[in-house]
Amino acid sequence: MNIEEYREYCIAKKGVTESFPFDEVTLVFKVMGKMFALCGLDHVPLRINLKCDPDRAIELREEHDGIIEGWHMSKKHWNTVYLDSISKDLTKELIDHSYDLVVSKLTKKVKAELEGL
């Protein structure tokens, strides 16, 4: 998956915004104001940070050399994924998992707003 495919996949999800809150090269995707994915556009090879269930995060790191503890993130809840080292299908699955985790933690009010979009 390249950066354009990654961006298009993330931004197509319901309630998602993109921004550069940290600097001009760190692209952040949020659902209803909560971060679920980010990417340093200046990193080669391209890598993204995604939220992950802690148990699944460990399994993924053991199974895939291209998935490591979240770089500059909570090592328990975030993974760094090198996009050139895993399949496009797995990348999409991990983006979906991150998005779903964040949505599951939203308040009832915010979830209702999201459903109304």
Throw out a few tags for this protein:
4 helices; 117 residues; 38% helix; YjbR/MT2646/Rv2570-like; alpha+beta; 6 strands
Describe the structure.
A 6-stranded antiparallel sheet has the order 1-2-3-4-6-5, covered by helices on one side. The protein contains 4 helices and 6 strands, in the order αββββαββαα. The radius of gyration is 14 Å and the shape is globular. The longest helix has 17 residues, at 88-104. The mean pLDDT is 96. The protein has helices at 3-11, 54-63, 88-104, 108-115, and strands spanning 16-19, 26-31, 34-40, 47-51, 67-69, 78-82. The termini are far apart. It has 117 residues and is an alpha+beta fold.
**Class inferred from helices and paired strands:** alpha+beta
Helix content: 25-40%
What's the total helix number?
Answer: 4
The major β-sheet equals: 6 strands, antiparallel
Question: How does the overall form come out from the CA principal axes?
Answer: globular
Number of strands: 6
What is the chain-wise order of helices and strands?
HEEEEHEEHH
The fraction of residues in strands falls at: 25-35%
Biggest sheet: strands side by side, in what order? 1-2-3-4-6-5
Would you tell me the overall average pLDDT? 96
Low-confidence stretches: none
Q: In angstroms, what separates the terminal alpha carbons?
A: 28 Å
Pfam families: YjbR
Keywords: DNA-binding
InterPro entries: YjbR (IPR007351), YjbR-like_sf (IPR038056), YjbR/MT2646/Rv2570-like (IPR058532)
GO molecular function, one term: DNA binding
